[in-house]
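Support reply, case 0932

Customer input (verbatim):
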Amino acid sequence: MNKKQLKFIFGSFIIVVSIGYLVVTGISKTAVYYLTVSELLSKGSTVYGEGVRVEGKVVGGSIMKDPYTLKVDFKITDGNKDIPIHYEGVIPDLFKDGRDVVVEGKYAHEGVFRAHTLLTSCPSKYESADKSQFKTS
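Our regenerated output:
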């Protein structure tokens, strides 16, 4: 091999390693863990300040919206444990008591989950239409 080929191989190796490093560090910084309420609370202080996603149902009667801002406080549950959520942002139309939601944010030392993303899921049970409504000719 001559010097040109060695330089090309070495340069290619450096570029591939650099791209690999950027991909790995980018994924690790944006990766978000998905937990239930009980899993989050069982981890305790190890998740303080870490970005996580938590799934649960909105506890009935817990929604407190600020009528002048885009702030809402509520609780979610997994059936075993509850956690208070503080969210600031556009509230989805389907957000209401008993709805399955996914919140993304950070768990604070005060025991409040500060969400920056609030997602609601569509109802999972769809009832079929009454078949007598449809007449066959």
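We compared this against your earlier run and they match. Two observations from our side: The chain has a mean pLDDT of 84. Strands lie at 33-36, 51-58, 64-65, 71-77, 82-88, 100-107, 113-120. Please reopen the case if you see a mismatch on your end.
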